[in-house]
Amino acid sequence: MSIRIGRRQALPACLAAALVGGAVAIALPTTALAGGNGHGHGHARNVIFINGDGMAAAHREAARLALAGYDGDLTMDSLPVTGLQTTDPRDPDDAITDSAAAATAWATGQKTYNGAISVDVDGNPLLTLGAEAEAAGKATGIVTTAQVTDASPAAFFSTTPDRGLEDQIAEQYLEVTKPEVILGGGEDWWLPAGNEGVYPPRTAAEQGSETDPEVSRSTRGDLIAEAEGLGYQYVTDAASLAAADGDQLLGLFSNEEMFQQRPEGEGDEYAPVVPLADMTSKALDTLSTDRDGFFLLVEEEAVDEMSHANNATQMLRAMAALDDAVQVARDYVAEHPDTLLVVTGDHECGGLTVEGVDDADESGPGGTLAGTPAVEDQISGEDGPFAVAGSDQRFVLDWTTSGHTGVPTVVTAEGVGSDALVGYHPNTHLHDVMHQVLFDR
Ligand SMILES: [Zn+2]
How far is the CA of 306 from the centre of ligand 1 (A)? Predict the structure, then answer.
């Protein structure tokens, strides 16, 4: 059974009028309204939405075994509500989503093509949760170990047909949606060429790889100066973030990502200047001063990018950092039950699975695809073995691709409205639940 709700009820008149088609109806389980069996009754003011980019069940289980052991749980896995989410995009050329299309589904409730930042399949801008939250008087924030203008945060706070236009995305943050807290990497997109900023350029050689150099590249001028002119307190390291006391914060802690995504031993590093948990804590301190409530997006990007690099050791470090951030959020919810906390991943990355150490089972090299060296070279390998914490048992992690896959991702949640996330849903369902929790009164 479901109840149809006119979305117009939830929106200020100016935004409702902007909705194409007028009274758009969305269907939600009754539990989203009634609160169900105790995980959420009444009206929620806040949403903390945590994205482990590229994280699906195998990443979570690998981290559970390595960090908590057979009898332990990650914090993210101990939330009381669990569901599954499908992630397929509506891309003319690809059945598997990227982060842009996946985050657009979350931020707008609409499926779109890969690379789209909250525009529909025809390129038309869509209304984002971030913009709606600001229009409703709530505070909003971004915390990520990616560039703050990377696809996942961008889809909640900007609209553009191309995820690569990161300087334009930054400009929209400042001039259109105005999130109060912006913490993460990506200084290079906020400063024009020649203006080095706090984090100096790094050549490809300095990064230990053959990727592009890290250099300032804003085509929209000095966006950091613009932010300061708009009242943002600008911080660049852990000490200045800790000391900050403004109600608008811009923290840029690296040129691009706050880590180096590479295969093992090729310049790979996971050691963010500010831990994800500390950024999350500061964001909650800042946003929670708004009496109208807040929407906070928290993202650990290295789960995805280390999985692209098939680097299980660093992926597990990122998972540990992500779980620390979930604990910070959970502590907040314990004291502020008028909050929905959701932890999930936008898609799977790496085709990861958890296996025993005996490799007699391998169906890769030596298996049905074997026969030509070229094919064998393309087949990703195993990482490990890794110890099961508190045990003398070990496991290995096996990658099947350096790209994304289409398996569902796990959703765990607690707080107001979380019961509506039980079940097996398309990723657009998360949008509908968060929308209901934030705006329906
Ligand atoms: Zn990815």
Answer: 9
